[in-house]
Hints:
By secondary structure, the protein is an all-alpha fold. It has a single domain (6-145), classed as Up-down Bundle (Four Helix Bundle (Hemerythrin (Met), subunit A)), CATH 1.20.120.290. It contains five helices and no strands. The protein has helices at residues 6-29, 33-66, 72-95, 99-131, 136-145. Helix 1 (6-29) packs antiparallel against helix 2 (33-66) and helix 3 packs antiparallel against helix 4 (99-131). 27% of the residues are buried.
Amino acid sequence: MMHSTIAEKMSAGHQHCDDLFAAAESSVGQGEWGEARADFSSFNQVMEHHLRMEEEILFPEFEARTGQQGGPTEIMRGEHAQMRDLFLSMSEAVGESDQSGYLGSSETLLWIIQQHNSKEENILYPMIDNMLSSEVDLLLQKLSQLD
């Protein structure tokens, strides 16, 4: 699907990540460990790609335009670091078939992701679309080319 704004593209990415997250949590909850490992791996890869799109393309462009290094993008990067710590805990838990460890970390992650996505979708992405309006098509192209 073609997206015409950063907000559309990245919000669709959030939804895709949420769907993969739910699938992994369901597999873990049912004790289907082979499926859980595959589901978590898919979720982790897609999340990491999404975070890289923000950190390597969107945030630097936003910071260059605003001259802000310590604004909303710094907060988002801090939350990305928290998420990555939880990904590591969840990866270890799924590797050890540790249902309660996984579900504890995933519960924390869900809370962080909900808050994080809300800030991005309602504040940051619209700001990027607005401030970089003349460059949105180029940014969308760069995002789609990130491996």
